[in-house]
Amino acid sequence: MQKNTSSRSGAFNPRVFLAFILFSIGASLAVAAVLNVQLVPGTAVLLDQSTSSGNGGNAKSTSSSTNIFSPAAFVDYKRFGGEPTVVVDRYPFPGTNTSAAAQCPPGQTTCFKDIAYQSAPQGFVAPRYSNFFKSDDLEQTFRVPAHTPMTTKGTATGQGGGDSHQAVGSVSHKVYFVDLALSHITMNVSSDLGETWTTDDVFGAGLNLLDDRQWVEADETAPLPPGSTGNVYISAINLANAAFPTLMAARSTNGASTPGSFLSSPCNPATFTVGAGVGAPASDTAMTPCPDPSDPVLWVAGPIVADKEGTLTRPATHTVYVPFVRRLSMLGTGTDCPCAWQLYIAKSADGGTTWTRLKIADLPKTVDPANIFVQMAIDRAGNLYYTWSQAQNVTASSEGEQDIYYTFSTNGGTSWAKPINLTDEQGDSAVF
Q1: Is 41 exposed, middle or buried (0-12, 13-18, 19+ CB in 10 A)?
Q2: pTM to 2 decimals?
Q3: Phi-psi category of 162—alpha, beta or left, where left has phi over 0 and alpha has psi -120 to 50?
Q4: Where are the beta strands (DSSP E) in 155-297?
Q5: Residue 204 contacts by C-beta under 8 Å, 6 or more apart in sequence?
Q6: 180 to 34, 138, 160, 373: CA distances (angstroms)
Q7: Which three-class secondary structure state does DSSP give residue 115?
């Protein structure tokens, strides 16, 4: 049988191949012209652009196009987990870390590694742990470290998987990991960039506490209290007295280097009611050992954060803040709600020894700003940025559309801008 060399067969045809290449190049150029896609060299991060499709990343709403984000990277394809947390070690290496992985390439005394650590709780069901992953390739891939801080211990004996959170030290590059077992909070510390960990410190914030949603922050250059070699803070809402919960902040002044180092915190079970009003929140100006003691209208709180980075002209203040929300139920039970709301921060200027409270905004009962957790961030100039997810049309049976809001303060929280709606178009609720 004669071999068919026609272009209609599966044989290679140079003319078809050339036409395909030219078409592909043309199509690629056309797409590139439309999208103006450029990557930051050596990364998967898309460069920002100033075109009609966006406005430099400062999009007014989620319906406006912006292209400063890379495609999503899967951390794990199989395991489930809720309320994930990711933190990036963006501080100069090696700092005081002596592990081999923390050292810089030959000839460099300082370098940046941008290692990312991600965790997500599995819940209180067996086997009771939180997943932990690490990325050292600019978050393009993630892996499980050689050892993880997770265990399969039971309630009141160790890790619980209820909630997880982590922070990194700016000097030591230690990773501070906290997890929740409902009856207590545990702390694990890694000194080798998340590869191995200390065993559970079940006294992480005091044993036999009933807490919800703990957070951790590290300020390793905090000057107060005197003698501190590195402050590590754990904040949570303590629910031992559910009618009068306390926004607590436990503190270690030695970088959580010894078990039980949080037990000497000024805020502890014995001081949860100190400074509180009679059946009412503490006065905003009262200096209390806990961020918000014994508060019948305390509703939810976000991560504790410290002003630990400054500039050449503005040194870091090392002020500590905790954002939180009050729901103004007159009965304290919520049975009279929908209720009005108040956005707040707790503030400590002495390394977590004493706290006062600053109100950010009053909100009507027709909205709900407590869709999970409020968040606050601090830039190097000391400006504060406070953000939350707000249901817009609250009734007894529905909450309606949800929008993202933020506000800011340029004077340490003394005054705040009027809340700004970032997603104010109708019908585009894009959040939890």
Answers
A1: exposed
A2: 0.82
A3: alpha
A4: 164-168, 175-180, 185-190, 211-219, 231-238, 246-252
A5: 178, 184, 185, 186, 187, 234, 250, 262
A6: 48, 29, 5, 16
A7: strand
Euclidean distance between CA atoms 218 and 165, whole angstroms: 12
Write the pLDDT tens digit of every residue in 286-336.
999 999 999 999 999 999 999 999 999 999 999 999 999 999 998 777 888
Cis check for the bond before 338: say yes or no (omega within 30 of 0).
yes
Domain parsing of the chain, residue ranges: 20-71
Query: Residue 325 is encoded by which pair of tokens?
Result: 């929300």
- The predicted-structure confidence for 13-52, as pLDDT tens digits, reads as follows 544 444 444 444 444 444 344 445 555 565 545 554 434 3
Question: For residue 130, what are its two tokens?
Answer: 């939180």
Type of residue found at 260: G
Distance CA 57, CA 406 (A): 16
The residue type found at 181 is A
User: Which tens digit of pLDDT belongs to each residue from 335-365?
Assistant: 888 899 999 999 999 999 999 999 999 999 9
Please give the Cα distance from 346 to 355 (Å, whole number): 6
| 354, 383 contact by CB (below 8 A) | no
